[in-house]
TrEMBL record:
This is Benzoyl-CoA reductase, bzd-type, subunit O. It comes from the Bacteria. Keywords: Iron, Iron-sulfur, Metal-binding, Oxidoreductase. NCBIfam families: benz_CoA_bzdO.
Amino acid sequence: MNKYPTEPLKLWKKAKELREQYYMNYARAKEKGGIRWSGSAWALDAIPAGLGEDVYSLTGEPYAAAVAHDRKFAKECMDAAEAYGFARDLCSYMRIYWGGMHLNKYAFGGEFPKPDFVFQTQICCSHSKWYQHVAKEEKIPEFYLDVGVGPYKDMTDARLDYVANQLHDGIAFVEKASGRKFDDELFIKAVKNEMRSTSRWADICALNKVKPAPLDEKTMYSLYVLCTLSKSAQWCADFMDELYEEVKDRVARGIAAVPNETIRLMTDTQPPWSFLKIFRYLETYGAVSIGSLYTFALEGIWEEKADGTWGGRTLPWDKGIEIKDRDTAVRLYADWNLSKPQWQHFYDPTIKSDMMLRIIKEWQVDGVMLHLNRGCEGLSVGIMENRLAIAKSGTPVMTFEGNMGDEREFDEVRTQARVDAFMEQLGVRRQAA
């Protein structure tokens, strides 16, 4: 029985169109004399943006996640990577990307579009090796930015300088790789757009603290993804502002993502993309997943507010800091990204546990589902320590095994049985349709 009113998201169609346009723009960039580059969703994409307004990227993880949803093509890609000699226990996104490149097949039709250069950020154990192979196979120049300088709480001027100096090197690299002069005005605009996009996404996620939740996590996956594609683009920042207004309106009118919301769950790491229906199964119990550290903070940039709660990080210009020159932009841009919550737990699992416990408290979470994701060592590191910390706090927690990109690692029947047992533990029953 429904307790709350619900309605579709008005911006849903626009989000889908923007995503499709992004992949088409990359494929067709050469027809218009544009530039293509490849790197991860964590690449600091405001740097290549300084080369012009006809510069297009292919971010590897969201591309591979899109492929993972197509089980047949995903398996074809992974088989190709494994036939080449790569081990099956490597990052599944990486194997999907490599396989598509070797097959010369693009998920959105035609041949796999060749980038002009690689521009990559290194924090995950796979990132540099991923694009080292791409650069070698495609015979293109490559640049790697090391951001592994320790947790943001321990930031020093020397650590910030280390990253900022590499960004200056990155500017010199993209100029040389493209044969174009770098435009500081375009770069500064891109930095501001990225700050707007990522702070605003955090603001949107913070609106999910209310009951009923205006968004469910399955829907949120299709929204945050725009920041993983091109967070420094004007279209992305503008969309996030639009989305914030719509979600704020949903909160004001009491519009629920799950009309029969009874209990609130939180997940962790990437989901098994080919089995997102697990979230719809949860709804038969009146369970809504309000999100996760992954969904909130893969691209969202957060800070602790004056009242002690989590919200979107304040934009520099709202604190009276003007960005008028390259040096200022580079330093603020480095600092902004180094504060990313999803980078912190690479150093110490207790940092992640503390953030998860904060979400449990502020988002009124009743239970936690941890995905023991074999497809991503980076975001799964320390996950059993996180489980212990959550259990110790008194919050019920379950685990299930799987893989974000490789469906061969996911047992749907077994996972559903674990969910049933967990719901029984939480004291809820399946509701009549």
